[in-house]
Amino acid sequence: MPESTSSEQPDGKPNAADDEVFAAIRRARLGLADLVAGLDSDQLATPSLCAGWSVRDVVGHLVLASDPPKARLFAAVVRARGSYDRAMDRLSRAEATRPFPDLVANLRANADSRFAVAGVGPRGPLTDVLVHTVDIAVPLRLSWSAPPDAVRASLEFATSSRARAFVPRGRLSGLRLHASDLGFTWGQGATVNGSGIDLLAVLCGRAALLERLDGPGADALESRTLGTITSGRRPDGG
In 3-state terms, what secondary structure has residue 194? Predict the structure, then answer.
């Protein structure tokens, strides 16, 4: 079972870097709540970019992920034969059936939650909320600007060894990423160009945004991303 991490150092003093990330998570959750608060039933039923989930399901997931009920999650993992992903999928869909105004209210109420999976840290939930906001905003054509500092922090996370649940091993081998709007560069090899948020979303399996990327490494990234999806694996970051 995942455990919650703390934003404290071993000596008990606050970790300033983590505090900044949690502040970014808070802003992202509140921004998403504002973005979805006025959606109608047809918009909520729209398929998101996260495979198999509607817009409403994504919101349910983010409410659940912000403050997971440990007992229910443990029981769901047992029923899913040890699969955390399948357990979270079932619980997220169940959460999404609640009245939507309640989900929005819970998203706001949990904005300050500091839950993060041990070994992943707070950049995991930051990446989760940013990518899932893309999942909602793109198919609904909603106006949303990703905060540059938050996207940079998530890109640094997504290209690290801590992000295996988001970015499969080998997806970025031999590639160099360049986020033109952030001045962010990572890796060596064939270059893939794009905005920071588009790169982040594609790294986390959002194939719909591959067309926004270019450069000599774009074809390799496309092949690897589509190969993961067609193999039956759920897109990462869900």
Answer: strand
pTM beyond 0.70, yes or no: yes
Query: Angle 197-202-208 (CA atoms, 0-180°, nearest 5)?
Result: 105
Measured distance CA(4)–CA(238) in Å, rounded = 18
Q: Do residues 203 and 171 touch, judged by C-beta distance below 8 A?
A: yes
With tokens 């270059």, the residue in question is 191
Pairing label, strands 184-187, 190-194: unpaired
- Kindly report the number of other CB atoms within 10 A of residue 64's CB atom: 22
Give φ, ψ of 209 to 5 degrees: -100, 5
Instruction: Give CA 200 to chain center in angstroms.
Output: 9
- 175 strand-pairing partners: 190
**Confidence bin at 11 (pLDDT 50/70/90):** very low
Compute the C-alpha angle 93/99/105, nearest 5°.
100
* Per-residue pLDDT reduced to its tens digit, 67-118: 877 767 667 677 767 776 788 888 899 999 999 999 999 999 999 999 988 8
What are the boundaries of each domain within the chain?
16-120
